[in-house]
Amino acid sequence: MTFQEAFAEVKEIISKADVSKYNGGHIAFQVNLRGEGEGAFYVELDNGFVDVQPYEYYDRDVIFTVGTKDFLKIMKGKLDPVLAFTIGKLKVDGDIGKALEIQKLIKS
């Protein structure tokens, strides 16, 4: 799997998420994919709107570093992000409270 394929799959999943009720303000996540499909992209939530772009975002709240396959499992609801963090499959740098907001995105 290439980065472009992994990014397209993630973008499709996130684009289907219902974030219309999200009113937590502005949060920007950068995701650093490792292994097959390695690359970086960002997800920005801003009061009910979501944007996903295939490049680094320097004004971010949180950086997630994770294997591509594990991130796709997280996004599909097949791997709990807290469990992934606990067992070392997901590294989080930044505001942990804001990092937990990704669960709202996944569940929607």
Description:
This protein is α+β, with helices and mostly antiparallel strands and 108 residues long. It has a single domain (3-107), classed as Nonspecific Lipid-transfer Protein, Chain A (2-Layer Sandwich), CATH 3.30.1050.10. Helices cover 34% and strands 31% of the residues. It is built from five helices and five strands, in the order H-E-E-E-E-H-H-E-H-H. It has helices spanning 3-15, 68-75, 81-86, 96-99, 102-107, and strands at 26-34, 39-46, 49-53, 62-67, 90-94. A five-stranded mixed β-sheet has the order 3-2-1-4-5. A hairpin with a 2-residue loop joins strand 2 and strand 3 (49-53). The longest helix is centred in the first third of the chain and has 13 residues, at 3-15. The chain is globular, with a radius of gyration of 12 Å. The model has no long low-confidence stretch (mean pLDDT 88).
Fill in the CATH topology. Answer: Nonspecific Lipid-transfer Protein, Chain A
Counting helices, strands and paired strands, the structural category is alpha+beta
User: How many domains in all?
Assistant: 1
Order of helices and strands: HEEEEHHEHH
* Strand segment tally: 5
Average of pLDDT: 88
> What overall geometry do the principal axes of the alpha carbons give?
globular
Helix content: 25-40%
What percent of residues are in strands? 25-35%
Spatial order of strands in the largest sheet:
3-2-1-4-5
Which CATH first-tier class would you pick?
A: Alpha Beta
Largest sheet: 5 strands, mixed
Rounded to an integer in angstroms, the radius of gyration calculated over CA atoms is 12 Å
Total helices: the number is 5
Query: Any low-confidence stretches, pLDDT <50, length ≥5?
Result: none
CATH architecture classification: 2-Layer Sandwich
Q: Note the gap between the termini.
A: 26 Å
* CATH level 4 superfamily: SCP2 sterol-binding domain
